[in-house]
Design a protein that fits this description.
CATH architecture of the largest domain in chain A: 3-Layer(aba) Sandwich
Radius of gyration of chain A: 21 Å
CATH superfamily of the largest domain in chain A: NAD(P)-binding Rossmann-like Domain
Oligomer: homodimer
Strand content of chain A: 15-25%
Distance between the termini of chain A: 31 Å
CATH class of the largest domain in chain A: Alpha Beta
Number of helices of chain A: 9
Largest sheet of chain A: 7 strands, parallel
Helix content of chain A: 25-40%
Largest interface: A-B, 52 and 52 residues
Strand order of the largest sheet of chain A: 8-7-6-9-10-11-12
Chain lengths: 310, 310
């Protein structure tokens, strides 16, 4: 019999137990044991939050795979006791939430919405913004989430470019790759959206040099990972006007400490890591499908490349 | 020889002359006379802004058609001296601009963006919004602009419903029509977008009764026409909380007078009639195509139904 250990904070269990049982039954795994307290020698799969108590995977002799509840795997991928396959979470709810956040904040800057939200009585200046087709949005990171965002920005009419570590091809998107491609991609970007994973190679992708490569007055949107930005360099670029505005959802320390300069900078919007979250209903279906695949001997969805780190 | 009179404010002539000449040449009408001062007996077509000096069309004996520069024709359609065909302006730029404005303001409310734009240091409350698929946006008016907005909201994942005078069918949109259909459409709308034309039949479409049909806390977005809303009823619904927010781009009097209560209401956003404007480059192509059609004896694009008033 298949035993699935749910290893995450207890409040997650309350959210996930019912949708996960329903998804397992629907996948033909209604007889699997789903539990948050199993004897280690009986565990076949671990549904896993990296901040759970489980940190030593060597105690699970039968373990077939670890199914991460989160998109980010940076705090588990380097665990030396983890020798079985690791799958990231990529669920429709997360993809949709990200798409909505990115489209919304890109449109907010495109339309100059803040001036109206904070408008003064009688402030009637009927200057329509340019069309989206005349704005270039660059997406750094063309994985599942970056691709979903690129597609919806194209549907809105924006000119979309993208950059990734290795070459990618998305219809309608002008793509760049590799270290040299990054500067070329940034040079024409009115708005840049960061959607890369957190790996040693992506740390401080936006730094003094790359921020200087953007056109003056560009806008930065970061719903990816806090480590992608050199915070001191971004604050300096905001001071000089090189960057007109930054909308940031992720930070090196979360919650963002109350005394962090981002909170008080007039050209920074802080959102509290809400761009996208795993949703129990949609995520449970992905987990059940991966258990089904594991039991059927089929390759798992969203397997992590351990060398690349995502 | 074909003579085209450009009848609009002089600043429009400065914007339109070059793109209009280019579009006419491209349409094979390079030998047409384009002018803003023609002898009335020589005029074949009038490119027309309803606020121009030309108000008596009976002085143009050869006139074949009036090609409106604006989407709205409410101030010309009833002119008794106008007996030739009248075409509305429907240009790609206007359609795109409207799509962007509507998508942006719908997402702003969907994401609860204002709380972050106006956020306080340390205000870290990581509650992700629901997904777009769990929000219903109702579009009142399913013409060219309403359809374009419905399509982009579908691409963003929203549940989209629509209402129009006569039955319309748009893939993916649950459509209602006629007076009874309006209440049914409003009953489930989290956000309602007004995109009907200004006709006697559409005046005060949102009034005390129809506002009461919306779920409590609904959001109103009006980029259509100021006359679609009973302003007193909307202010009362905002006061009571029946309507959580109204974003208004069009008004009975424009510019909106500085002492109008909309300017100071905390739950109203005023935008200065910028949701969509005719763009000289794209609009000139539509005008040139209609002159070409007129000269070739083909039916004009975007003909106004004089009885319906749009």
């Amino acid at each position: 019999m298949t035993t699935i250990l749910f290893a995450a904070h207890p409040d997650r269990w309350a959210q996930y137990e019912a949708p996960l049982r329903a998804a397992l039954a629907k996948a033909g795994l209604g007889d699997a044991t789903l539990t948050c307290t199993a004897a280690p020698q009986q565990v076949d799969y671990i549904v896993y939050a990296p901040n759970s108590d489980v940190q030593d995977f060597s105690v699970f002799p039968r373990l077939k795979a670890v199914l991460n509840l989160w998109a980010g795997v940076e705090t588990v991928v380097g665990n030396p006791t983890l020798t079985v396959p690791l799958a990231r979470m990529v669920d429709d709810g997360m993809r949709e939430g990200m798409r909505e956040y990115v489209a919304g904040h890109v449109l907010r800057h495109h339309l100059g919405m803040d001036a109206h939200i904070k408008g003064k009585p009688g402030g009637w200046q009927p200057n329509a913004p340019p069309l989206a087709r005349d704005r270039t949005v660059a997406i750094l990171g063309l994985g599942e989430l970056g691709t979903a965002c690129a597609e919806v920005l194209l549907a809105l009419g924006f000119t979309v470019t993208g950059w990734s570590r290795s070459a990618k091809s998305i219809p309608g998107v002008t793509s760049f790759h590799g270290p040299d491609g990054l500067t070329d991609c940034l040079k024409t970007a009115d708005i840049v959206v960061l959607l890369m994973p957190n790996t040693p190679a992506t740390e401080n992708t936006l730094n003094a040099d790359t921020l200087a490569a953007l056109p003056r007055g560009a806008v930065v949107i970061n719903p990816g990972r806090g480590t992608l930005i050199d915070d001191e360099a971004l604050l300096a670029a905001l001071e000089s006007g090189q960057i007109a505005h930054a909308t940031l959802d992720v930070f090196r320390v979360e919650p963002l400490p109350e005394d962090h300069p981002y909170w008080r900078h007039p050209n920074v919007t802080v959102t509290p890591h809400i761009a996208s979250e795993t949703r129990p209903e949609t995520a449970s279906q992905v987990i059940a499908e991966n258990v089904r695949r594991g039991e059927a001997g089929e390759p798992l969805l969203h397997l992590v490349n351990r060398r690349a780190g995502y």
